[in-house]
Design goal:
By secondary structure, the protein is an alpha/beta fold. It is 27% helix and 25% strand. The protein has 13 helices and 30 strands. The chain has a nine-stranded mixed β-sheet, with helices on both faces. It has a five-stranded parallel β-sheet with strand order 17-16-15-23-22.
């Protein structure tokens, strides 16, 4: 560990900082030092094996049936393929608009990702027989009212109804479907989705229903002979709902196991930085302070309480100057007091400092189209962008000795292809880029992966402190597919009415505190990681390929691409978990467990029947 001194208490630091801001104490007399914690994870070797390179060789246990003529085919097909690949479920894709229905007996699970079930032809009878004999089949979307649907309806657990559609405007998740999802309500207002108006048999297990008085079943499972049906009576199929798709698929198997990242990361954008420009009206209203005093004596101490209570390790994304200049010279920031104080405290709480930019101008060059979304300057040359970025990195390394910036966050999450290439070629210390998970208009969107050029992509999923139901929905889905929390907040959120400034920091901080409490009560064993370690965890996840070799007595699997450890989500739907070799297992909630694999082969004993 790179160690420079013992930690100061927050109380002591806050007192000194308050004195400094009041003009009673000079920084040079404080003698504040810091310590930098060692990285929790090491970098992967260059010869790590990527599952993507040999995915086609993975055993295809799932049959994915689609219809390329269907209006929503692309959304449904892409959503399922993305989720199955992330779960390392080998599949065979068959387009029924061009191919015939294959033999179901070659597969363990079947997904019907189309609405016109008449495309199955006489195979609908074969499918029902296959399920009764132990097969597992999921309807991924609300079906059309066809003859094949009417034939299937009794097998699907439908007691009556199902001959008409109804519009829904919200959903409620029932117990046991998703980690942290029990009772989650997502109401979007306008009735945008159409579902079958059905009533189910008592044997059917409902996991999601409409949030109105009708309590219309939207997702359920039902046993059929030795097999099982899972029915999605909705049309969710987008990036933000991958966690729901994962949860629905996990209901098919008696034991569902898939790799996860296991990382909780909180990013502080524009921190440390000069005091940002903006309207402090609401700060003056609520605290009778100026912006600088509010940050030092209210915002930062509040943020540190979350750090101390939950073990959060903040990743601060430094801005050296708010000058909009993109050409000429880039002078060093001389007002260092603010940077040192906040930076030292952040490091003393296990955090790290990455690079947001010399200033807040994205790495975009002449000709880049901002599409009237933002008012930024482009860089006139690569040389100017290199000079500015070099200055910022040197500023960080000089001021915070031992902290080499590894993580880059694009200003306003905007990064051109040209700018990204520049980062790779000119700044090898930048190993992780953290932009956005969901697509925007001009923002740089990402997957959790190692990109082709070797840079690790660890996107941020949610932001700010308003944290409305849409963001919480996004967070819930990322938690269930990747076991990831990835959140960012700006200190100047309290200056922007669009980000909740009028609500006041007290309400915003209460929202943020409630979210953090939900996160760590729902995922008690999720790892608190810095941005760089979250990237390293993503790399370990991304290189893994998994091959299952189950028997009636045990669940076994082996991994290619295994380095030193790996994490897996285990949903144990039938029986009980016995002894584990090759790793350890921890209970999360319900029938969800987190498996920590420490060897490339893992065995889990099956015991008894479901309780």
């Amino acid at each position: 560990m790179f160690r420079m001194c013992k930690r100061f208490s927050i109380t002591f630091l806050s007192i000194m900082l308050a004195m400094l801001l009041s003009g009673f104490l000079l920084l040079d007399s404080i003698g504040m030092d810091y310590e930098i914690e060692e990285a929790q994870l090491s970098d992967l070797p260059d010869n790590a094996v990527f599952w993507k390179d040999n995915y086609e060789e993975q055993s295809a246990l799932c049959l994915l049936l689609v219809d390329s003529t269907m209006e929503n085919n692309e959304a449904f097909s892409e959503n399922l393929q993305d989720v199955l690949q992330d779960m390392r479920v080998g599949y065979t894709l068959v387009d029924l608009a061009q191919e015939t229905v294959p033999d179901f007996s070659s597969y363990e699970t079947v997904i019907l990702a189309f609405q016109d079930l008449d495309l199955l032809g006489e195979s609908v009878i074969t499918l029902c027989n296959w399920v009764q004999q132990g097969g597992r089949c999921m309807l991924f979307c609300t079906p059309n009212l066809t003859a094949s649907y009417r034939y299937l309806a009794p097998y699907l657990g439908i007691r009556e109804g199902g001959v008409s559609y109804t519009a829904i405007s919200g959903l409620n998740i029932k117990e046991g479907l998703m980690i942290g999802g029990d009772g989650f309500n997502f109401h979007w207002g306008e009735p945008l989705m159409v579902s079958l108006n059905v009533q189910l048999n008592e044997e059917a297990q409902v996991y999601m229903e409409s949030d109105d008085d009708r309590k219309l079943p939207l997702l359920w499972s039902t046993e059929c002979g030795e097999g099982r049906w899972v029915v999605n009576n909705h049309g969710f199929a987008e990036k933000a709902t991958r966690g729901l798709t994962c949860a629905a698929y996990s209901l098919l198997e008696d034991v569902c196991i898939y790799p996860v990242i296991n990382a909780s990361a909180f990013f502080l954008d524009d921190f440390p930085s000069p005091v940002p420009m903006g309207d402090g009206t609401f700060i003056r209203r609520d605290y009778n302070r100026d912006i600088s005093s509010f940050y030092s004596n209210v915002w930062w101490p509040d943020m540190l309480t979350l750090c101390e209570e939950y073990g959060i390790r903040y990743t601060g994304m430094l801005i050296e100057d708010y000058d909009d200049e993109t050409g000429g010279i880039f002078p060093r920031q001389t007002d260092t007091e603010r940077f040192e104080h906040f930076g030292f405290m952040l490091l003393n709480h296990g955090g790290e400092i990455g690079i947001h930019g010399y200033n807040h101008q994205p790495l975009c060059f002449s000709g880049f189209d901002f599409k009237n979304q933002v008012d930024y300057n482009t860089w006139p040359s690569h040389e100017s962008a290199i000079n500015a970025t070099t200055e910022c990195i040197d500023y960080i390394e000089t001021m915070f000795e031992g902290n080499t910036p590894v993580v880059y966050v694009p200003p306003s999450n905007i990064l051109s292809e040209e700018g990204r290439t520049l980062l790779k070629e000119e700044f090898p210390q930048i190993q992780v880029i953290s932009s956005l998970y969901l697509e925007g208009v001009i923002e740089y969107s990402q997957e959790f992966e190692i990109a082709e050029d070797g840079i690790i992509e660890f996107p941020r999923v949610i932001s700010g402190a308003l944290l409305d139901q849409y963001m919480r929905w996004d967070a819930l889905n990322a938690l269930n597919l990747y076991y990831v929390n990835s959140h960012f907040i700006h200190p100047d959120d309290v200056l922007d009415e669009d980000r909740g400034a009028q609500e006041g920091w007290e309400i915003l901080f209460d929202n943020l505190s409630q979210y953090v409490e939900w996160l760590y009560s729902s995922a008690p064993n999720i790892r608190n990681l810095t941005g760089s370690d979250a990237g390293r965890a993503t790399a370990r996840y991304d290189v893994l390929s998994v091959e299952r070799m189950d028997t009636p007595e045990e669940v076994r699997f082996r991994m290619d691409g295994f380095w030193d450890e790996a994490y897996f989500m285990v949903r144990w739907n039938e029986g009980e978990i016995g002894e584990v070799s090759g790793g350890t297992i921890e209970h999360i909630a319900g029938n969800f467990y987190l498996l920590h694999a420490t060897q490339s082969q893992v065995r889990i004993e099956r015991r008894g029947e479901a309780q």
